[in-house]
Amino acid sequence: MTEPGAGAAPTAGTGAASRPVAAGPGAGAWPGQAAADAMIVCDRLVRIYTGEGIEVQALQGLDLLIAEGELTALVGAAGSGKSTLINILAGLDAPTAGRVRVAGHDLAAATAKERLAYRRGVVGFIWQQTSRNLLSYLTARQNVMLPMRFGSLRRRERTRRADFLLDTLGITHCAGRTPERMSGGEQQRAAIATALANQPRVLLADEPTGELDSATAQEVFSALQTANTELGTTVLVVTHDPAVSSQVRRTIAIRDGRTSSETIRHTATDEHGRTELHAREYAVLDRAGRLQLPREMIERLSMRDRVQLEEEADHIGVWPDDADGPGTERRE
Ligand code: ADP
Ligand code: MG
């Protein structure tokens, strides 16, 4: 098991009520210029659930930077901490330790009142369960207008904005329908419109296509892309769907409560002038110098407990800890 990132710091039991705990050198400042500019910054985020004598470390010192305007997919096995992270970013839950900042809002230090204002105006959130996102007795237009009650728009402007969002997401025909008269995909698109009502800087979606077939999932994902490209919203979407994660530039994988690897996709032009999509997977290196080696590689080389490192001019070699090490005849 990996050591928690803010591991040395004591973590109070109840999580939500406890204050962020500073740990280690440099804990007083957000790390680096990249973090200063980022839309989402998680710094050694820890979330421990306690109850009935058992303790679950859902987030174990997670670091994450997401730039403004990115559309990012978050993937990982069940129980790896995706929902825990999204709930913290959404202001629905608070970390046990570590720091988290979204659009300049320090969420670990926020009061309940500040968190409420944050949820209303700064982030939009979409649940996996379509039924959870919309009020069943309101039409799509009324659902989208509902969060605007807390804003400054007049009624006519609210209607105009709701209709603009429904149109942008391709569901104008649902404006006067209640959710039961809409398909699952239409409901999720109306949910996205509702989440966008107050022009949030960040849109968070926790497996929004999890209950949908693949064609409908694509429709909903396209709506998230529209929110990103046309409205400039930074989007973070949890997904199990490889079709979705293959369409984003950056996919972040979570393992055991930490970001473990990232896949970056970009298009390049080959020597014949054809554009090709390249995907490259990276291991994530945290600020303390820790990285997670892919499980398959570790198992194939029977690595356990400790490894030997060898520094080369342009790379670092990692060797299993057996009798031979770097510098023996095993090397070419
Ligand atoms: P994911 O969304 O990646 O499936 P979660 O963030 O829901 O993972 O859960 C991460 C871990 O935390 C799991 O081991 C899960 O059982 C545990 N967990 C999640 N929510 C709670 C909770 N409210 N109380 C106790 N344990 C929880
Ligand atoms: Mg989940």
Indicate the radius of gyration in whole angstroms: 22 Å
Strand order of the largest sheet: 6-7-8-3-9-10-11
Order of helices and strands: HEEEHEEHEHHHHEHEHEEEHEE
Mean pLDDT: 86
The biggest sheet, with number of strands, parallel, antiparallel or mixed sense and barrel status, is: 7 strands, mixed
Distance between the termini: 33 Å
Structural class: alpha/beta
What is the assembly state of the chains in this entry? Answer: single chain
- What is the general shape? globular
Count of strand segments: 13
List the helices and strands and how they pair.
Blueprint: H1 32-37, E1 40-51, E2 54-66, E3 71-75, H2 82-89, E4 97-102, E5 105-106, H3 112-121, E6 123-126, H4 130-133, H5 140-145, H6 155-168, H7 184-195, E7 202-206, H8 214-231, E8 234-238, H9 242-245, E9 250-255, E10 258-269, E11 275-283, H10 295-300, E12 307-311, E13 316-320
Parallel strand pairs: 3-8, 3-9, 6-7, 7-8
Antiparallel strand pairs: 1-2, 1-4, 4-5, 9-10, 10-11, 12-13
Residues 49, 56, 58, 76, 78-84 line the site of adenosine-5'-diphosphate (ADP).
Which tags fit this structure?
binds magnesium ion; 10 helices; single chain; globular; alpha/beta; binds adenosine-5'-diphosphate; seven-stranded mixed beta sheet; four-stranded antiparallel beta sheet; 332 residues
Explain what this protein looks like in three dimensions.
The protein has a domain at 296-332. The protein has a 7-stranded mixed sheet, sandwiched between helices. With 332 residues, the chain is an alpha/beta fold. It has helices spanning 32-37, 82-89, 112-121, 130-133, 140-145, 155-168, 184-195, 214-231, 242-245, 295-300; strands at 40-51, 54-66, 71-75, 97-102, 105-106, 123-126, 202-206, 234-238, 250-255, 258-269, 275-283, 307-311, 316-320. Helix 7 (184-195) packs parallel to helix 8. The longest helix is centred in the last third of the chain and has 18 residues, at 214-231. Bound molecules: adenosine-5'-diphosphate and magnesium ion. Adenosine-5'-diphosphate (ADP) binds at residues 49, 56, 58, 76, 78-84.
